Amino acid sequence: MRILVDIGNSRCKSCIEENGQFIALDTFAWHDVFIHDALKKAWLEPLAGRVPESIHVSNVAGDRLLPNLSAWCCSQWSLTPLTVASQPEFAGLRNAYLEPTTLGVDRWAAMVGARSRYQGPLCVVDSGTATTVDVIDKDGMHIGGAILPGIYTMRRSLGKYTAALFAADGEISPFSNNTAAGIAGGTGYASVGAIERLILEANKAVGDATTVITGGEAGVLEELLTLDAVIDPMLVLHGVAVLSEVLTEDQLRERSRCE
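Above: the chain's sequence. Below: its structure in token form.
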């Protein structure tokens, strides 16, 4: 039994992986959180005394959470979490970036996960604090990607730079009769409009691609999209699992040892 972790820009997602089954654990916002309380609720309580064999992490937050999470894992289970990294190539997937290690590891894991689960050309959309769109041709060549603000990031930007427009949560509709709802609708449609245009460009570039959407805003996009797409909430974690399977048992034991 392993714990797979995706530390994003604002939230920490995780799951238990056992015998090929993925069981989602509680997601939590990690900014200003007391890590002991968050992990007790997200991990300790669901595991009910069981100890994972290893912990594998995709981390785009730098040193803002991982050191504390690692210290907690060492104190609780005597295990150091193992991080995955972007690579020039993995299992036939080739990274388009001129400096492959600078591609966000969550994007790399999402693409690895998508190729392990779906066939043919792929358009992989990960929508959270930022929205990324990555395109892979039928031969596994990543042709590149696009990055745009997530829906709530757009809303926060308007709230920061426009007077009294911070309360923008609400139902997304194309036209509204109040400012907050207008911002909710405008940012929602701006995001989905850009994504749909990029999906069309992906299809022109690589042929009929399967669009796979993941991330915290996937549910919002699912309601608004007019193009076919598959929603896969644990796509990054599936990629973390695949990337971690190259380690032997001896390597796992050695690298998971706490100092």
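Residues 2-83 form a domain with the Nucleotidyltransferase; domain 5 fold (CATH 3.30.420.40).
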